[in-house]
Amino acid sequence: MAESDIIVQEKIARSILSNSKVHTYALNAYTGCEHACSYCYANFMIKYTKHVEPWGQFVDVKTNAAELLKKEIAKKQKGKVWISGTCDPYQSLEKEYKITRSCLEVLAAEDWPVIIQTRSPLVLRDLDLFHQFSDIEIGLSIPTGHDRVREIFEPSAPPIIDRINVLRELKAAGLRTYAMIAPLLPRTENLVELLTGAVDYIIVDKLNYHYADHIFKKLNREQYLTKEYSRTASNQIKKECERLNMECQVVF
Prior knowledge:
The protein has 252 residues and is of the alpha/beta class. 31% of the residues lie in helices and 18% in strands.
């Protein structure tokens, strides 16, 4: 989907740091995501907005995010901030709005620990900021090792090789990096080899939601929705990581 097809609205947010079950806090500078990945668990966010458009066709920009963040971190106990939980912090709108960068500047000034998760090469823009943190990790979501699969399930997201190259650049810059192989899509068997030397660790998770089930069924590939596939694929990744002495966390 072209960026021009996205409905973009500037909004004034009431809060910016939310409690998270994954890390201490989650920070989402946007509501909605241009990448429109068919399987995205954040699809549930639609019911909390007034949008009638499908997930992936709207983005609300929280223009006051950095201002809110300054106020909130002055009152909250310091903890790790996950950027982001329900949107990509470096989707293409970030080029214009720089909301994520503004929030990172606030967090860097107080040296709060940060973990970033994205699919976008735009993350490299903020290398200068990353070096201001004493505790920061940057990860790229890479659910398959084959771009044809990526084109089917996340056609608006950056190519797989671009994400791997981003990890290599971040790692070469001396930053702690990780790859999120989640959800486990078809054709992950080559991913560990591709990621060798680019990451400090790998996280693996299965397809936990059913938003993309219709795509698997249309392609007659329901076997990739089974527990057996998730176990087999994750075990293969874990064994390959062990062989190459790479840290691997299977979280299901």
